[in-house]
Design a protein that fits this description.
By secondary structure, the chain is α/β, with parallel strands linked by helices. It has 2 domains: 202 residues, Vaccinia Virus protein VP39 (Rossmann fold), CATH 3.40.50.150; 156 residues, DNA Methylase, Chain A, domain 2. Helices cover 32% and strands 13% of the residues. The protein contains 13 helices and 10 strands. The strands form 2 sheets. Strands 1, 2, 3, 4, 5, 6, 7 and 8 form an 8-stranded mixed β-sheet that branches. β2, α2 and β3 form a beta-alpha-beta unit. The radius of gyration is 20 Å and the shape is globular. The N and C termini lie close together (7 Å).
C-alpha cells in the first residue's frame, strides 16, 4: 500500500467532511462544489487545497486528476456528501428528484479514480425501500473493484458532538487493500463514553445578543474561551494550513469570533420563547427550545433563491428568548470558532445546516485510516 494520504471531497459544501478528513490527518488535495458562494467559503478555510467550482456530472476521473495535479495512483480516498434533499424525511422525498442521480455520480468517479477507499455520506432516508434501486444501481458500478461495507449509521452525539444529527456512510475498500473487514469494529471503538451537551458546546459564547448585530462586522464578538472545557479544547485546535489568516489572527489575538448575528423578534414572539419549557416546541414557529443538559436536534439548512429563499426553523437558545446565532449553530454542529462561513446570517445557516458534523466525520475517517494503515 502506498503511503499517500491524499483525499478529494466531492459535493464538499462548506467543508464538514473536509475538516473531519484533515483532523484525521489526511491531506485534502481538492474540493468540488457546484455553488460558487459555498466554494468561496470553503476556500477561506482550506486555502492550500485546489477548489473546483463545477457540476460533478461534468467531471471525469481523468479531469479531476488533472485539476488536482495528482498521479493515477496517488489518491488515498474519495469522500463526499451527494445532495440529500430528495432522500430527506424533512423534504418531499421525491424519488425522481434530479439530485438523486448525483448519488450514482459519486460511485462513477470512485471507479474512475480507483482510490484505496471511498466514503459517501447521506441522510438515513436513503436506506428506505423506495430508494433501493437507486442504491443498488450506484453500488453496482463499483462492486467489481471494491468491497462494500454495510451502510454505517452514525449519530454524532455518540462520537462526542452536542447534536443528534444522524447520517449514513457508504464505505468501499479497494479489493487489493487489506484491513477493510476491521473498519466497523474500529468505528465502534471511536464512540465516546461521556456526553457533550448543549451547555458544553455553547460555553463562553456571548449570551446577550443585540438585535442590531445584523452585518458581518458587528457579528464579531468577544468569546470567553475557557481552558477547562475538553470539548472546546479539541474543537478549537488550530490546524496548520487551515483557516483564513486575517480571521484566524483575530481569533487568536483578540479572542473574537464571527457569526454572532442578532435576530429581531417581536415582543409576542420573545414572550412565547421566554415562557417555553426547554425541550418543547413553539406551536407557531415550530422552533424547539434547547435544553442545556440535552442535545441539539438536527439543524436544518433552509433553501436558496432557486427554491424560494426559505429560512430554516432554528432552535431557541436555552436561556434567552431568541433563536440561536450562526456561531452557536456552528459550535453545536462541531465546527471550530476560527472556521468562517458566509458573511450573511442566512447563508451561514444554510452552510452549517447542509454540512456533515466534522466531529463524526473525523472519528469515522480516523478508524478507516488506522485500519487500512494509510
Amino acid at each position: 500500500m502506498s503511503n499517500t494520504s491524499k483525499i478529494i471531497d466531492l459535493y464538499s459544501g462548506v467543508g464538514g467532511l473536509s475538516l473531519g478528513a484533515v483532523k484525521a490527518d489526511f491531506d485534502l488535495i481538492g474540493a468540488v462544489e457546484y455553488e460558487k458562494r459555498i466554494i468561496e467559503s470553503h476556500k477561506k478555510n482550506f486555502p492550500a487545497s485546489t477548489h473546483i467550482c463545477a457540476d460533478v456530472t461534468s467531471l471525469s476521473g481523468k479531469s479531476l486528476l488533472e485539476l488536482t495535479h495528482l498521479g493515477s495512483s496517488e489518491l488515498a480516498g474519495l469522500i463526499g456528501g451527494p445532495p440529500c434533499q430528495g432522500f430527506s424525511t424533512i423534504g418531499r422525498r421525491n424519488i425522481s428528484d434530479q439530485r438523486n442521480r448525483l448519488f450514482a455520480d459519486f460511485f462513477r468517479l470512485a471507479l474512475e479514480l480507483r482510490p484505496a477507499f471511498f466514503m459517501a455520506e447521506n441522510v438515513p432516508g436513503i436506506l428506505d425501500e423506495k430508494y433501493s434501486e437507486i442504491r443498488k444501481n450506484a453500488i453496482k458500478i463499483v462492486e467489481g473493484t471494491y468491497n462494500i461495507l454495510e451502510p454505517v449509521k452514525i449519530n454524532a452525539s455518540e462520537f462526542g458532538a452536542a447534536t443528534t444529527r444522524t447520517r449514513v456512510f457508504f464505505i468501499g475498500i479497494r479489493k487489493d487493500i487489506q484491513g477493510g473487514e476491521s473498519i466497523m469494529a474500529a468505528i465502534e471503538k471511536m464512540k465516546f463514553k461521556s456526553s457533550t451537551f448543549v451547555k458544553d458546546a455553547l460555553d463562553g459564547l456571548p449570551v446577550k445578543i443585540s438585535d442590531d448585530w445584523l452585518d458581518f462586522d458587528s457579528s464579531w464578538r468577544k468569546a470567553a474561551l475557557k481552558p477547562q472545557n475538553v470539548y472546546l479544547d479539541s474543537l478549537n485546535r488550530i490546524v496548520d494550513g487551515l483557516g483564513e489568516p486575517k480571521c484566524l489572527n483575530r481569533y487568536i489575538k483578540e479572542k473574537e469570533v464571527s457569526g454572532c448575528f442578532g435576530t429581531r423578534h417581536s415582543q409576542q414572539v420573545a414572550f412565547r420563547y421566554a415562557n417555553l419549557e426547554p425541550g418543547r416546541q413553539d406551536s407557531i414557529s415550530k422552533s424547539i427550545k434547547l435544553k442545556e443538559d440535552g442535545y441539539c436536534p438536527t439543524l436544518r439548512a433552509g433553501t436558496d433563491s432557486t427554491k424560494g429563499s426559505f429560512q430554516a426553523v432554528r432552535p431557541i437558545h436555552p436561556s434567552e428568548p431568541r433563536v440561536i446565532t450562526p456561531r452557536e449553530a456552528a459550535r453545536l454542529q462541531g465546527f471550530p470558532d476560527w472556521f468562517q462561513f458566509h458573511e450573511t446570517k442566512w447563508h451561514s445557516f444554510r452552510q452549517i445546516g447542509n454540512s456533515v458534523c466534522p466531529i463524526a466525520a473525523e472519528k469515522v475517517l480516523i478508524a478507516i485510516k488506522s485500519t487500512l494503515n494509510i
